Amino acid sequence: MTGYKNQPQVYELSDDRFLFVFDPKEMSIGGRGDIYTRAYFSLSIRRTQKVREDHANGRIHTTDHWIYYSKYKEQLVNKIDELIDELGNCLDVSRDLLNFSYRSLDILSSKSEDYGLEKVQAELYDNLVAYVGEVIRRRLKGHWIVRESYQGHQYPLIDIKDGVSPILVVWQCLNEIEQINLRKACTREIRRASLSYR
User: Fold this and answer.
1) Is the torsion defined by CA of 36, 39, 40, 41 positive or negative?
2) Which pTM was predicted?
3) Residue 136 CB-density burial (10 A; 0-12 exposed, 13-18 middle, 19+ buried)
4) pLDDT tens for residues 23-52?
5) Quick one: pLDDT at residue 156?
6) How far apart are CA 185 and CA 152, in angstroms?
7) What is the pLDDT at residue 52?
């Protein structure tokens, strides 16, 4: 509205590092900066571009994001086994390793990184939601339901108290700057749900 445009500055340093300096006109942090490795800085730029693209296309909420990429939408709850089999085939993980343990989440995290973040998001979003949901369901002894937040906006959930969202877990992993870590995101959500029982 004021015509002000944020103008941070970036300087390339030795040893494959970058200095990011906040716009000097910023009130609290203007002129201050941070140094990043090239790999981290590239991931940060990719993440920023992804967030802007999602917002521009109305993919603001976690379920909006999943619905955009989902092949099965609310029908996912009827295809759990099929989606898990397909996940193992695509990521080359044998079915006996997909035993719903935390270790299996580590394997899937590593394999998903190798497969490529964009490809996972476009091709295996439903599959990861199905697998993560099954890990959560078994740990918390819940069951799958479909919830509708508003007309035409339906999504799967594990029915434990207020509901536990495997979509949230997968979305966090696909949208963090750090490497995919399904175990960390899943255990955090399970712990939160467990504490809410008390």
Assistant:
1) positive
2) 0.78
3) buried
4) 877 777 777 888 878 777 677 767 766 767
5) 95
6) 28
7) 72
